[in-house]
Amino acid sequence: KTGSEINNTASFTTSGDWEIDWSYDCTNFGQSGNFGIFVFNSDGSLPDVAANQHGTKGADVSNEHQGGTYYLEMDSPCDWHVIVKG
After folding, report:
1. pTM of the prediction?
2. Burial code of 30-57, b = ≥16 C-beta within 10 A, e = fewer?
3. Residue 7: what pLDDT?
């Protein structure tokens, strides 16, 4: 999923370990910015913050170790790209 500002993924289900490959770039924002990925359970509870960065750009992989049904919320004024791999 690619975007900017606040945006949610569709719900997805995993049976075990999974990862979030992410990047953000604030070049178009014109200054550093915050970037966050929040992992929500299907009931809306928040078991993890997968990324919480501040800068002009960055990229990393966040590993998750529990199966279940989740959705992600990305929050950043910058451009971002997120891939979930199961």
Report:
1. 0.94
2. eeebebbbbbbeeeeeeebebbebeeee
3. 97
